[in-house]
Amino acid sequence: xxPRRIAxxxxxxxxxxxxxxxxxxxxxxxxxxxxFFPDLDRLAGTLAALATFGAGFVARPVGAVxxxxxxxxxxxxxxxxxxxxxxxxxxxxxxxLPTYDTIGIAAPLLLVLCRFLQGFGLGGExxxxxxxxxxxxxxxxxxxxxSFPQLGPAVGFVVASGAFLLLSAALxxxxxxxxxxxxxxxxxxxxxxxxxxxxxxxAETPVFEKAMRxxxxxRAPIVDVVRRQPRSLLLATGGMIITYAIFYSVTTxxxxxxxxxxxxxRTMLLVAAMVAATVMGVATPVLAVLSDRVGRxxxxxxxxxxxxxxxxxxFALLGTGDGLLITLGFSVAMIAFAGxxxxxxxxLPELFATRYRYTGASIGYNAASIVGGGIAPLVATxxxxxxxxxxxxxxxxxxxAILSGLSIWALPExxxxxxxxxxxxxx
Length: 427
Description:
Layout: H1 3-36, H2 42-73, H3 76-95, H4 100-103, H5 106-134, H6 142-150, H7 152-170, H8 173-178, H9 183-199, H10 206-214, H11 221-228, H12 230-260, H13 266-294, H14 296-320, H15 323-351, H16 357-387, H17 391-409
């Protein structure tokens, strides 16, 4: 199978999985507070809904360890099939879940369980998808080929937001709250079937097959990566934090804050976020190719600097209530996101040896989600409520951008790394 077909298959799979993951964030910001936590006031309900949203991020590193273990022992292909099934079960289950008015406290508890399944499945998805692309890529073009699965978040978010936008336009608020929000979750069943059909037809990566022939198989990939490359694992996690902080500040926190605190139109904010995600999707392959030419570290560091500078205009523009200015703020933020996220598709796999590459890259990618994606939107909501303004959130984003920048600065440049070299950067 050609590298292009492998890259395309990786893109389709990640797009489906990120669609599943993102529809939860949109629903949590819009309706879950009232449906699953009706006894709480507006702020407390939003915080509770975002806390369940964060459960998915706690589950992601757990999934990374579990799927990474089998991905490094039995192969990338089989593991990707199981991760997609896990995500699909969790997503469709949310679509049929009774609300608090029907089954009481069991409703939010089951919601957290379903969200955990989503996060667990996604924890194994990204690492396998980018390895399928990078380990098939021609020399000198790993950034480009790894950008295909990196497009999954952009496409998944646009499709997820588009689904909610259409439902919001077609239904009354009562209809949307009653049953309309369930439609995107139930529609996932069709997408998962498509994804499974594609996944079972792809070939195992030649780098992994060579490693299995020539190297001793690791019994416990997580033990090996922690023992042999603890520094790389820690710095990779730190480098990824800002991507989550930016993305969920735009797509989840801003949606909740803009509708509830600023009284802005839900439709306007969804459209602004969709435009920004589209800009991010266009920027992703461009910046990935740039990282093939000038290096992963350089592109990532430039983008962290942009994130620090733009953290304050981003929320100031949101406060204007002007749709065009909000879209501008979101779009520039998403370019900063893409400047780190796009190179990471190749950067993280290049940091780790083949025998535990799935585990190392997956943990670095997903462990960062706890801080940047799970905790940051929750803290941001509390900060704005306490301060009555958005400037504390800007400080939070700027701080996380500096933290990621320092982590990336301490990593080696990897674009010339031989992925079949089992001893690469084992220090």
